[in-house]
Amino acid sequence: MSEKSQLVLMAEYNQLMNQRMVQVSANLSNDLLVADKGAFFKSILGTLNHIMIGDILWLKRFSLDSSIYPSLKAMDEIDIPEELGITLFDDLVVFGKERAKLDVVILEWCNELKDKDINAPLQYSNFKGEIHNKRLGDLILHLFLHQIHHRGQVTTLLSQENVNFGETDLPEIIPEVD
User: For all residues of the chain together, what is the average pLDDT?
Assistant: First the structure.
């Protein structure tokens, strides 16, 4: 399997897990969704917002030249979040719609990726203004691992509310081989 194929698989996996995360979270009251549970980003909805903030930040960095990848043109309409812990959406229904749109951008972009770009460096600056120059493919992998890490926190918060998230393993969507 090529690196591009693996990135597409990760985009599909993340889209599915994000859809499920919103569906399962919809079983909770808004009070439970925003209750401070002592997590990094306090609440279920706070953590879901943080995942989206991370995605937006990375996609904005990846889209510096959106003429190469038409799917990233959608990022032109999205502002860069000012902080990692702000709440972009305090309503789960609105959040879910925006999450779904962003997941489509990620999946379409991964399908558009070119091998030469995956191996190319990307120069970007972080919130501290520090300049970094790293391989694009490794940064895309980080995008997905960041989502996985924080979704794991959300599944823990959900289980504390007796909500069973269900299957989270990647083999569920890995295609069978002949």
Answer: 94
By the 8 A CB rule, do 49 and 55 touch? Answer: no
Q: Which residue did the predictor score with more confidence, 68 or 96?
A: 96
DSSP result, 95-157: HHHHHHHHHHHHHHHHHH--HHHHTSEEEEE-TT--EEEEEHHHHHHHHHHHHHHHHHHHHHH
Give the pair of three-digit tokens for residue 104. 């489509």
The answer to whether 52 and 83 have CB atoms below 8 angstroms apart is no
Domains and CATH numbers, the chain: 3-170 (1.20.120.450)
Give the separation between CA 87 and CA 92, rounded to whole angstroms.
11
pTM over 0.90: yes
**pLDDT tens digits for range 137-154:** 999 999 999 999 999 999
Alpha carbon distance 43, 35 (integer Å): 5
Residue with tokens 């401070």: 36
Q: Which amino acid is at 174?
A: I
Indicate whether 16 pLDDT > 70. Answer: yes
